[in-house]
Amino acid sequence: MDVVSPELNSLLPDEIMDTEAIIMDDDPPSESPAASGQSQPSDDSPVPMETDVPAVPEIVSLCSDAPPTQLTQAGTTSTPTGSTLCNTTSATQLLLTSSTVSSSSLTLRPATASTLTSTTPKTTSSLSRVSLTSGGLQKLSAPFTLSANHQIILNKVASSPGADTARSQGTTTTTTTPGGQQFMVTTIGKSGQPIVLQLPHTGSKSASVQGLGEAKANPQHFKVVTVSSASQVSTLQAQQLKTVQIAKKTQVSSAGPIKFVFTKAVNNKGLTAQTSVSNVITGRVLSTSSPVTPPRTITLSETLGSSSSSKIAISPLKSPSKLTVVSVASQVPNSPQKSVSLPLNMAHLGHQILLQQSTATSPAKTMKPVQTVTVGGVGAPQFKTIFPLSTPSNVQQIQVPGSRFHYVRLVTATTGSSTGHAGSPITNSSMTAKPMVVNTTQVRMSVPIVPAQTMKQVVPKPLTSSGQVLTTQTQQRLIMPATSLPQIQPNLTNLPPGTMLAPAPGSGNMGYAVLPAQYVTQLQQSAYVTLASSSGFSTPTGIQTQARLPLNGLSTSGAAFRPRKPCNCTKSQCLKLYCDCFANGEFCQNCNCTNCFNNLEHETDRAKAIKACLDRNPEAFKPKIGKGKEGESDRRHSKGCNCKRSGCLKNYCECYEAKIMCSSTCKCVGCKNFEESPERKTLMHLADAAEVRVQQQTAAKTKLSSQISDLLTRTTPAITSGGGRMPYTFVTKEVAEVTCECLLEQAEQAELNQQPQATAERMILEEFGRCLMRIISSAGKTDCPSINC
DNA sequence: GAGTTTGAAACT
DNA sequence: CAGTTTCAAACTC
Hints:
Layout: H1 6-11, H2 14-17, H3 33-38, E1 94-97, H4 110-116, H5 122-130, E2 138-139, E3 144-146, E4 151-154, E5 172-176, E6 181-186, E7 195-198, E8 207-208, E9 220-233, E10 238-249, E11 258-267, E12 283-287, E13 298-302, E14 310-314, E15 321-327, E16 339-340, H6 346-349, E17 370-375, E18 383-388, E19 395-399, E20 406-410, E21 437-438, E22 447-449, E23 477-478, E24 500-503, E25 512-515, H7 517-526, E26 529-531, H8 535-538, E27 545-547, H9 580-583, H10 603-616, E28 625-627, E29 635-637, H11 654-657, H12 678-721, H13 733-752, H14 757-779
Helix pairs in contact: 4-5, 13-14
The chain binds a DNA duplex through residues 565, 567-572, 576-580, 583, 613, 616-617, 620, 639, 641-646, 650-654, 657.
GO cellular component, one term: nucleus
Subcellular location: Nucleus
InterPro entries: CRC, Lin-54_fam, Tesmin/TSO1-like_CXC
């Protein structure tokens, strides 16, 4: 069974791995009776991450739109398709992402998809259709408990008979459908906390129990994994966001594995009934791919009128892979727009997040383009990543002085109905399980990005039919790096800025492509984008459109970004910090390096290299030039230079190169890079003078160029018109004849006077000079200059 | 453009 | 942690 191993999970940060939020501790018994009966109060206070998201009561449900105090329709456990998670309480919403591949046996029909988010009683009936290939009964085993109200309670305390007892930190429950599908619910993190999944009522299906080992026999697998959490701390409240993902594993079908991403927002603190809920998916999608089919990622997200958004993420990769998807918000139609501030400190998280953002006023059926990108060279491992089709308006570039990176602020294109408030607590709209709205304008997200340049070595592959992204999501998404890379995991926060971990084929748990954020940006600008509308599921007005965007990022506005100097590495394979590209968390592109491994084709090696660098220096990928101590406004080198011979007045010195003074942190010898240094002042003056010279030269060139252009403009018509002719045009046949006569006359004079030959030649030349002068002088006077000897 | 210098990174 | 080696950029000619 391809499940996140406990060892791997144990490496995940607590912020991510903490599944406490799943527990419905705060849920009133009336709201989740089953949960109350099974759950255990958690003494562990959630570890809020450095975010500003107000806390929201933790609610885990498998479908939305449940009235605030009303339990949702309970169903059978037969929906490994994970179709619906009903939010039984107001606080937290489990965002379901379901996916399907059209070519696979796992087919999700529009009608089915529409029911995914339906919270109405119809959900139950429609869910039966939602079941992917198997509509059979589900087997539930301890600690998988099916409550009376059709809630699946995952008691972490209890261990599944078939499960490995060593998994003390979580339990895994496998549920198998009659059709052979198997879906596993595993809780990662702290034990003793049940997870309550409230399922819609399908009526005819009973739960059965199956051990973990049985899953292997099943051709298809669903993996529900509580992957990670992202908590955000605001001045008011803190919120933990967790993700439950279900990955469907097809055995040998043409379609690749299908990943179901369940997103759950975990609230640590209770909120008022009208507090909106924000969902953030920070989990990983565990998927396996068929060895034959190309990677395929399909994301389906939809929001119905009063339902929460559901998403399906299918990413059949060639090998077990992980994809972190962050769902920031969903929309709340038919309800007052409630905003949720989800500041995500990228630096803190060390992740790259693909922000999914909903438009506040758009109907639930509003589609947000989502980009699926397949990258990798020919024959190289292919990667699929879901990217939002971000409009330029959603990204604000931020210039950080001294930073070698460019930052962007993801901005929500909120509409007038959006009522986002900075720092405002989350207003709960989950009482009705409505999609949540995130005002990302408040997202304190700094994602270092890099100029979107054409990838020399890695070119996004055009999507084929298998690489489409179908989405009904109206949210902007952030893809967070997969957090399960053991080697990198301990230092996730120190990954290269904007790094995203993407699944890498054939590398098992190592299979991650550490994508520079800029690459994502580049992909966003260059990759083919498949636009799909969820309305195809919910409304007839929906359209599915595919738009091909230019592959070359240079053709986009992103090309205007800072061009990076190409490296010339020869021995480091561009996997050492010697390489500026690598040190900046960038892929090499348009470089002059040889034997370069700093690309997606060698993502495994690259990941190892990153890990090695982080092991040596956890700060390796952090900007060296940062803010000084508190009170110091000047930038300063975080580590300081160690110059010996340059006097810190050459670009060998990192301080000087960064145009900053050396500080006390420097260990340089003979430093002259300080404020009062006369050498430095001289250099500065020289530099200023040089700059002035350059400017003057530039201006002169510009002026000269302008004059030449003007001259050509003036003279060109003159040649044909006769006015203002070029000088040579005055040397007509007549003029030449006259001139020759003059010269001959001089020769005759010299001969008559018996002048020496030298004198004769001189006389002739002088006459020729005079003739030329006459020609020139008369050029501007008359059209037919007369030359007289 | 080739060769040298330099200092950070990597290694021991 | 210090000393040495490696490396690529900066610099010089």
